[in-house]
């Protein structure tokens, strides 16, 4: 869990992803379209993948990926991010991290 917390604070917006996950890709594209350059951690390329997945779920992410952190705090997965975007609450949250 310490590794996940450290990784989630590396940049203003951090996305834990898997290279084969289409939902992870959609979330990444959304942030890029908003003008944010998120730090992407492809956990399937990390030797500690299983531990990272378990830590993300213990932190409260319903599915291990995508897991989005903004300002070092877990926002959630695809459903939470898209709901925030549709309700216009995502842009103000990421405004400090725009490129």
From TrEMBL:
Domain Glutaredoxin: 13-75
CDD domains (alphabetical): GRX_GRXh_1_2_like (cd03419)
Any Pfam family hit: Glutaredoxin
Compartments reported by the entry: Cytoplasm
Cellular component, GO annotation: cytoplasm
Keywords noted in UniProt: Cytoplasm, Redox-active center
Keyword Cytoplasm attributed: yes
Domain of life: Eukaryota
Family under the similarity heading: Belongs to the glutaredoxin family. CC-type subfamily.
PANTHER family from the UniProt entry: GLUTAREDOXIN
Protein name, as recorded: Glutaredoxin domain-containing protein
Taxonomic lineage: Eukaryota, Viridiplantae, Streptophyta, Embryophyta, Tracheophyta
């Amino acid at each position: 869990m310490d590794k996940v917390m450290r990784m989630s604070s590396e940049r203003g917006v951090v996305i834990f992803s898997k290279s084969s996950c289409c939902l992870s890709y959609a979330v990444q594209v959304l942030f890029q379209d908003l003008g944010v350059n998120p730090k992407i951690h492809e956990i399937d390329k990390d030797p500690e993948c299983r531990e990272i997945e378990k830590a993300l779920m213990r932190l409260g992410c319903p599915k291990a990926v995508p897991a989005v952190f903004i300002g070092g705090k877990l926002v959630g997965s695809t459903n939470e991010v898209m709901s925030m975007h549709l309700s216009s609450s995502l842009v103000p949250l990421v405004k400090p991290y725009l490129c």
